[in-house]
Amino acid sequence: MGELAQLGHPDYGSRLFTLIGELNNENNRNRAKLYVLEALAAEPRVAQPPLLVRVTQNAKNPTEMDIELQLKPINSDSVLNLVFPFFLT
To answer: Is the pLDDT of residue 7 over 90?
Structure first.
């Protein structure tokens, strides 16, 4: 969030960066989910609400969260299924 301020988009993005260096525990995974939901709510290309936002601890790397999304772009019948790794280190 804030990285595109010079291009006229000061509020675009998420607050996920605030979790870097934190523990991969339930509280921080819930915070990550909240930050993703906030970012998606501000995204005009996504139909609201998203169908699924799930944040889990990666099975192989305890310092990685996996963020799973199911969402529908506006003006589309297709559902996008996405999984993003988020590294806390």
So the answer is: no
